[in-house]
UniProtKB/TrEMBL annotation:
Keywords attached to this entry: ATP-binding, Coiled coil, Nucleotide-binding, Repeat
Listed GO MF terms: ATP binding; ATP hydrolysis activity; DNA binding
Region annotation (Disordered) ranges: 541-568
Coiled-coil regions, chain positions: 570-655
Domain ABC transporter: 2-256, 323-539
Protein name per Swiss-Prot or TrEMBL: ABC transporter related protein
Length: 657
């Protein structure tokens, strides 16, 4: 167990950690959240031994191993990828070298040297005890899971990009199997397939973990405890991220109620003091109440979290056809394989589509072809009439004018209707107060990316193309962006590895695979379900095709195998259909009950007599507001479930016709 006692840390006059205490028990998985700049990375660096706290202590057992993946790049390894990952196992590597050395000596006259054979046996036993025989195999398995290919293992590490080197460093840490794993935004460097793999790996990890992440889907699936760091204090919620959201709202409501009750009690006591202060007969009672007020431990309400919801609108509506791609072929150079071959694709006004696929498959290339930054090798890409594109991508940060201030940079691209709202939107992305007057050149990479994002959102475009817009955003900023894009009346093409974000926003998922585009109706969760069905059918069809050809007599009729495959596919979709149908029925019941309750509340709130009891009226209004929010969420999920059900049935019909 790791025990943290009264940990404090300051930068200048700002307290990042103020007497923070908590324990990390064996096997616990803790999600560490909080606004950008709250001190999350500082806390991890202190636990990793990279920073010293101003005060407090960290207690851990002797030999306790800590593995730390920082957010920024780490310089490690000078040889091959595999060699760099194995670096953390010096004793195993040293023993392996000694074994090879002795084996080379056991030749000729020394082939049966008793001393060498005994030494070799001892080394082999030690090598086996340390897991040396499984180590390389385990390292390769982890690397493959993180998206590396077998052909990458012996490539020099320096040949890989920064993101891939961070993956390699993560593999090195996972291979060490530390007692405590500290991960600072591990999902930033991963594509969706690798993200799903690491999620599965970490679920089975037996050690303890503290993970800083703004990926709500990731936190929901992994975290057993959410630790929120805010204003120097750490608050624990014993559940996943969904539980944290509900529990925090409940605690806040209880605290407000306790504060209101205490304020009423204070006012009652103060009225007594004011009324009888100068009456000799009441002097003792007055003094008693004054002392009571002095000793009273006042309940303090936390600072109200600022959550600015902003709306973005297309200045001019495009025509129905936003984008038309016909017979697209593309590769960077003639000697390379095709990235796209024979692609046809259409995009219509108002569609919100996710573009998915492993890193390197061509997602960013596809967006750059649409914007005209790249030209097709063959084929046609045609934007529709009155289409105005705004493109957000990480490389566009380099286009910012370094001498402009943050405010100047944003104002230069803002549409007239956003005039005066620039500060609000910048504040949503963690750039407020004096920060908006800073020159771009002094900002961090993450801050520059947020300025670039604000510029895009303030533009008058009716077709937004966004490549990883949630990178560098904390949870509140992601929620604000999610709200704005959900309400956006233009067309959206989105690349993101934030699955929660995709689930909330998109109506279709387009997967890039083997130079082709594959379309799936619904959000990201629907895509995973439909893809599972498609993979299942493809495997069965392949298996069927490998069987011996049918005789001429049976030609034109379905074989028993074909019938069996179709039946299995129908059963698989039927199970998913039943699950969705049950969810739809449950939602319909919830909506029906909520609408009845809403009608009753509206009747009470319309009655003037209700407001004779102000506390009761406030309570009814709160209940009504919460009910409206629940109804909106349930109706949205009902629509998603209906679409998913329709898509499943369409997929079945398409593949079995």
């Amino acid at each position: 167990m790791l025990q943290i006692n009264d940990l404090s840390y300051e930068i200048g006059e700002r307290k990042l950690l103020n007497n923070v205490s908590f324990a990390v028990h064996p096997g616990q998985k803790i999600g560490l959240i909080g606004p950008n700049g709250a001190g999350k990375t500082t806390l991890l660096r202190i636990l990793a031994g990279e920073l010293k706290p101003l005060s407090g202590s960290i207690l851990m057992p002797r030999g306790y191993k800590i593995g730390y993946l920082p957010q920024e790049q780490v310089a490690f390894g000078v040889g091959s990828l595999l060699g760099a990952v194995l670096e953390g196992h010096a004793e195993i590597q040293q023993i392996e070298m000694q074994i090879h050395e002795i084996q080379s000596q056991l030749t000729g006259n020394d082939a049966h040297n008793a001393r060498l054979l005994k030494k070799l046996g001892e080394l082999q036993d030690r090598f086996s005890l340390l897991g040396g025989y499984e180590l390389e195999s385990e390292a390769k398995k982890i690397l493959m899971g993180l998206g590396f290919k077998e052909s990458d293992f012996f490539r020099p590490l320096k040949e890989f990009s920064g993101g891939w080197r961070m993956r390699a460093y993560l593999a090195k840490i996972l291979l060490i199997k530390p007692d405590l794993l500290l991960l600072d935004e591990p999902t930033n460097h991963l594509d969706l397939p690798s993200l799903e793999w690491i999620e599965g790996f970490l679920k089975t990890f037996t050690g303890s973990m503290i993970i800083i992440s703004h990926d709500r889907y990731f936190l929901d699936r992994l975290a057993q405890i959410i630790a929120e760091l805010q204003h120097g204090q750490l608050t624990l919620y014993h559940g996943n991220y969904h539980f944290y959201e509900q529990e925090k709202a409940k605690r806040q409501e209880q605290l407000i109620k306790q504060w209101e009750e205490q304020q009423a009690e204070i006012q009652r006591i103060q009225r007594f003091i004011d009324r009888f202060r100068y009456k000799a007969t009441k002097a003792a009672q007055v003094q008693s109440r004054i002392k009571k007020l002095e000793k009273l431990e006042r309940i303090e309400l936390p600072e109200e979290e600022k959550f600015i919801r902003f709306k973005i609108r297309a200045a001019v509506q495009s025509y129905k056809d936003v984008l038309q791609i016909e017979n697209l072929f593309f590769r960077y150079v003639e000697t390379q394989p095709w990235i796209f071959q024979g692609v046809d694709f259409r995009l219509y006004r108002g569609q919100k589509i996710a573009l998915v696929g492993p890193n390197g498959v061509g997602k960013t290339t596809f967006t750059r072809l649409i914007t005209g930054e790249l030209k097709p090798t063959q084929g046609k890409i045609q934007a529709g009439q009155r289409v105005k594109i705004s493109y957000y991508a990480q490389h566009q940060v380099d286009a910012l004018n370094l001498d402009s201030t943050v405010m100047e940079a944003v104002q230069q691209s803002a549409a007239p209707e956003f005039s005066g709202k620039e500060r609000d939107i910048l504040g949503t992305f963690g750039l407020s107060g004096d920060a908006v007057e800073k020159p771009i050149k002094v900002l961090s990479g993450g801050e520059k990316a947020r300025v670039s994002l604000a510029k895009i959102l303030l533009s008058p475009a009716n077709f937004l193309i966004m490549d990883e817009p949630t990178n560098h955003l904390d949870l509140k900023s992601r929620e604000a962006l999610e709200f704005a894009l959900n309400d956006y009346d233009g067309t959206l093409l989105l690349i993101s590895h934030d699955r929660y974000f995709l689930d909330k926003l998109v109506q279709k998922v387009v997967e890039i695979k083997d130079g082709k585009l594959y379309e799936y109706e619904g959000n990201y969760s629907d895509y995973l379900r439909l893809k599972e069905v498609r993979v299942f059918i493809d495997q069965k069809e392949k298996s069927s095709a490998e069987q011996k050809p049918e005789s001429k007599k049976s030609a034109g009729r379905k074989s028993k195998e074909q019938k069996r495959l179709e039946a299995e596919a129908r059963q698989k979709i039927s199970r998913q259909r039943k699950k969705l149908a049950a969810e739809i029925e449950q939602l319909e019941n919830q909506i029906e009950q909520a609408e009845a309750q809403k009608a009753d509340l509206e009747k009470q709130l319309a009655d003037p007599a209700t407001y004779q009891n102000s506390a009761r009226a406030v309570e009814l209004q709160k209940t009504y507001k919460q009910l409206q929010e629940n109804l909106t969420a349930w109706e949205a999920r009902w629509e998603e479930a209906q679409l998913a059900l329709e898509a499943l049935l369409a997929e079945l019909e398409k593949n079995l016709s």
